[in-house]
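Table S2 (text version). Query chain:
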Amino acid sequence: MSQKELNYLEDIYNHELLMISIISKSMEEVSNEEYCSLLEDQLSNYENLNKKILKLLEANK
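Corresponding structure-token output:
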């Protein structure tokens, strides 16, 4: 994988971390259980994506 591609993956990884942080913070502020459930689903999706990206980055060290 080229350095440019690794930089793109790193940007994506950082974006996923930011989204995880935003969703987690939103969950703390939302009192409606339906919204919390929706946010939990989204959080799970972003965490799974983040794990996959991290594996790609680690494989290319």
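Notes on Table S2: The chain has a mean pLDDT of 91. The radius of gyration is 14 Å.
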